[in-house]
Request: fold
Amino acid sequence: MQLETDRLILRPFQSEDLNAYAEICADPQVMRYFARPYTFREVENFLQQYATKWETGGYAFSAIIRKSDGLLLGSCGLSWIENEMIFTPCTEIGWRLRPDVWGRGYATEAAREWLKWGFEQRELKEIYAFTPVLNRPSQQVMQRLRMQRVPELYFDLPGLDEDHPLRPMILSRMTQKDWAKIMESKENFRSDAELKTLPFTL
Reply:
């Protein structure tokens, strides 16, 4: 399975992506809103888990490839989660990009295409996104995607100390009805070309 936008190819991870993606996940700047960077072995396990999710559930976090040069920019995609939190089980959308391509609208462009696929091809009823309260860049992407915050579902990330700055999490959601309204509206989304000219952090 492969999706395409004007600038990007979105596809399942392949074995040759491991080294480049492990480098991204080990970058302290990329991982500043995570408890810590990930090791090579952890990333290798993640890619195995993504492959399993593709086989069993039909979607998972996936690679972002830039069309112009074939560069792996990072990851974006949908993932089914069953953690014991008040909003699960559900489908989440997430993204992670290498820092030298931040500010060009790639995260928004990729996530928008995954939302379209999730609602129009898989007919999902709702898709969630969550991130630490401190992570303003990802929150800005959620806003550009027109996802709606759900304050009553904000939560504390399990596994972190009570006073850890990354523990408080915000949560946003888009429903199938929300997506249909966006598609019917006159404004719709900005084009991929317009995204390249906007002030982005991711």
Notes: The CA atoms of residues 140 and 201 lie 8 Å apart.
